[in-house]
Amino acid sequence: MAGTTRRGALKFGGAGLLATGWGGWATRVSAGVPMLPPALSGQDIELRVAHRMLRIDGRDTHAIGINGGIPGPLLRLREGQDVRLTVINDLHDEDTSVHWHGLLVPFQMDGVPGISFPGIKAGERFTYEFPLRQSGTYWYHSHSGLQEQMGHYGPIVIDPVGADPIECDREHVVVLSDHSAMHPHVIFKKLKQQGGYFNYQKQTLAGQIAGRDQKGADRLEWGKMRMDPTDISDVTGSTYRFLINGQTARDNWTGLFRPGERLRLRFINASAMTIFNVRIPGLAMTVVAADGVPVKPVTVDEFQIANAETYDVIVTPADANAYGLVAEAIDRSGMAFGTLAPRAGMVAVAPPLRRRPLATMKDMGMDMAGMDPDMMDMSAMHMGMRDKRNAPALPLGPGVQTIAPMPADRTGEPGQGLADAGHKALVYTDLVARDANPDTRPPGRTIEIHLTGNMERYMWAFDGKKLSEVGEPIPFTAGERVRIVLINDTMMNHPIHLHGHFFELATGKGDHAPRKHTVNVQPGGMVTFDLTADAIGDWAFHCHMLYHMHAGMMRVVSVRPAVAA
Amino acid sequence: MSALLHRAALVALLPLSVAAPALAQDMPAGEMADHAHMHHADAPSAEPATAQAAPPPVPTDHAADAVWGADAMAPSRALLQREHGGMAMNQVMVDLAEVQFRQGRDGYRWEGEGWWGGDINRFVAKTQGEGDWRRAPDDAEVQALYARAIGPYYNLQAGVRQDIGKGPKRTYAVIGLEGLAPYWFETEASVFLSDKGDVTARLEGWYDQRITQRLIIQPRAEVNLAAQNVPEQGVGAGLSSAEAGLRLRYEVAREFAPYIGVSWERKLGRTGRYADSAGEGRGGAALVLGVRAWF
């Protein structure tokens, strides 16, 4: 076996490594991620964006690759270096862009056309140039049209200055994604035409008789509210193939290890629309970083990773066995599957898909546990499903199907469908930052933002207004500390991403609050975070469900110096 | 199973429920008001309660303009707005396209509509008609409507209807309401004012009961009402005709579903007597074979 353990790589690291990123890193069998030699300042990297065909289980599909790869090349950089990334648009007919997800860069280098820069026209090139002020696991993707769905994404690993305090013998990057043979514009159109188009796990007469579905009384209640408890994912395994590093379960991506090694797995969810439940049956996983930022180690059996989140975990397989790397779609309509094995050719057995979850009253923002039992009058409750008094500032247009009457802070709950997993699943309140927070001032003001939607019309927005309807940004003063409360009035998950900043989740961890760039707000739930608006410029703020964003679930955030009074 | 019986009963009551939900869905419930926002007290965060400073003024500049120039940024900013919620869509749905096998006279029938536009404002075209096999349609109409979303589930429609069948070629003003009622009933109600001053109305509803993920049985009902006698069209005042159908379809794809079913129609009251005197018969049952398709 090739000696590409970390120690080995460090020993032999200087020889001939690519300045153009590690193209072809996402091979079917990976001996581990190669290490770059010590960083060179002003390092030049070239990324070429072009159409290509992607063969998925024997079928060719249209895709967009970077330097020929899907995912694109791994960018392995070092904290403190400067980097020049030249992106060449070889698409014939459309603009492109690259957003460096989670990297703290000057706003004009953030890569969002219409906010940070004009975009990169077909046939043209653009050079991004910025210093790297952080370390950890990140990724990059297009912010133009729906290109991300077609394969325009790749991983970034930034090594810290000096030795990495997170020790390991070997590491693998695990990019999870969803790919469809259907063009993303067609997917979006189908969703607008029929919101449940891709859901082939709806409740049926057969399902009710077999006991898989809601019982009669519940079904009647939900029908009365025009709510579908099987609506867990908008786009499902009926059209998606779920990928690990660009490989399907049949391809069986394999990451190698030597028994007894400490393996660091850097998970990145680069999906357009899929939240994954990740587990490795037989191995406990110790989460050591979230969204690139180290956390105090917490050991779990399973974790849910929302779109655009990253988690670093340590596993220590003691035996020379093949272990299944299972990333099950949240709606259980399919899974990405790979193998961790001591040698190539070993294949772990994929477990069967677990039964699809059904949404509950809590997912509609009705926290029964927090309710006075005398109030459990159902007839009063659904009338309250769209009560203006629960959000007086919210315009009650056709895009607002429901307002959560009692949204619960669900950061202490495992993700949707994992409450009865029968083992330890990660919850946000498990996350405690390893290092003290840089800014522990209390916030000076609070902004409440409602995440709204209408599943029948496939409308999604912040505060009931699509970006296309809003001209004004959400204003911040540079340096101010602000608390943001996200209230999910819908029955879907919304992974919310703020560009240019990390924020501290308000989960009671004091000056060791977990710092994230993307946070999933569970259905009918709420998330509170505090933010130091320290990056002057205009920034995107949006749901990372690609088609929710495309439907309008996005805002511009502006940070400006304080005006002298 | 009681839920199914309940639903069957609701099918019968369907026309009565058409208008009510659209009006009811915006009504708040007093009972919930007391509990509104109790969640703030429940938040487990140990952070102290925050002050409420005033937000800064909304800036009038765009940060990127200072770097790339306002002229370079303007087109991409316009595209950003349009591509995040401003797109127009469309759909053409042929709900019924069927052959009707009756005792004696076989016939055909179609019903469909298309829409073009955004989330709130749309242009809607509708058509429906029926006739005897290998003959021009007896009844046929087209409608051109402006539709506006007036709530989460309902669209208000207004426009014109033109009859193009064998009878008088009347033109109508149309007001309609179309949408999804509680319990997942699709509903449609239209009132027509003809160029002769006659007022008629039509109520339709249907429900998709999935048996499996692709096999779906659809009960469907329609009633027609008239405010006055219109002898030229064979329509009498009051409840003029009713129709009920049950169609079993298989979704080969979501967009393409062949079906088989039964359809029963009956001209009622004075409309029935008009039909008698014209020697047309009051209606009856038919076995139907057809396809539901959309794109």
Give an overview of the whole structure.
The complex is a heterodimer of chains A (565) and B (295). Chain A is mostly beta strands and 565 residues long. Chain A has helices at 6-12, 184-193, 205-209, 216-224, 378-383, 546-551, and strands at 29-30, 43-56, 59-66, 75-78, 82-89, 99-101, 125-131, 136-141, 153-159, 170-180, 240-244, 253-256, 263-269, 276-279, 285-290, 293-300, 302-305, 310-315, 323-329, 335-341, 408-409, 445-454, 459-462, 474-477, 481-488, 494-498, 503-505, 515-516, 518-521, 525-532, 537-543, 554-560. In chain A, the strands form 6 sheets. In chain A, strands 21, 22, 23, 25, 27, 28 and 30 form a 7-stranded mixed beta sheet that branches. Chain A has a 6-stranded mixed beta sheet with strand order 1-12-20-19-14-17, with no helix packed on it. Chain A is globular. Chain B is of the alpha+beta class. Chain B has 7 helices and 13 strands. Chain B has helices at 2-17, 20-24, 30-33, 39-42, 63-68, 70-83, 269-277; strands at residues 89-101, 107-117, 121-132, 139-149, 154-163, 171-181, 185-194, 199-206, 209-210, 215-226, 238-250, 256-267, 283-294. The radius of gyration of chain B is 25 Å and the shape is elongated. The interface between A and B is large, with 105 and 75 residues.
Sheet having the most strands of chain B? 12 strands, antiparallel, barrel
Kindly report how far apart the N and C termini of chain B lie.
Answer: 34 Å
| Quaternary organisation | heterodimer
Strands of the largest sheet of chain B, in order across it? 1-2-3-4-5-6-7-8-10-11-12-13
Q: If you compute it from the alpha carbons, what radius of gyration of chain B comes out, rounded to the nearest whole angstrom?
A: 25 Å
DSSP strand count of chain A: 32
Provide the gyration radius of chain A in Å. Answer: 23 Å
